[in-house]
Amino acid sequence: MSDLPYGPPVKVSPLIRFGRWSFLTAGILYGAFHQNRLSKKEAKLREIEAKEKVIRDAKLKEEKARAAAAEMKALEEMIATK
Q: Which residue stretches, if any, does this entry annotate as coiled coil (predicted)?
């Protein structure tokens, strides 16, 4: 014990020890409550995004088809003019 830089450890008050454990427990409960709440909110957002993804993918596919058709038409015109 003589090699400790600040002397022997001091006994912590039971009130301080109780307060520390209380705040730790309260923090864990607070985090669990908010994690549960945010998980439910995120699940709803994922459902909405899944519905929108189908629509967005269909529009994207249609735009790609139009772009491909326009590119093919432009290439055909380039070949025809030569």
A: 41-78
In percent, how much of the chain has pLDDT > 70?
A: 96
Q: What's this model's pTM, rounded to 2 decimal places?
A: 0.53
Instruction: Tell me which amino acid residue 7 is.
Output: G
Tokens of 79: 């070949």
- Tokens 């491909």 sit on residue: 68
Which of 15, 19, 37, 38 lies closest to 27 in space, CA to CA? 19
∠43-46-49 over CA atoms, to 5°? 155
What burial letters (b/e) apply to 24-44, b meaning 16+ CB within 10 Å? eeeeeeeeeeeeeeeeeeeee
**pLDDT 10s digits, 28-61:** 999 999 999 999 999 999 999 999 999 999 999 9
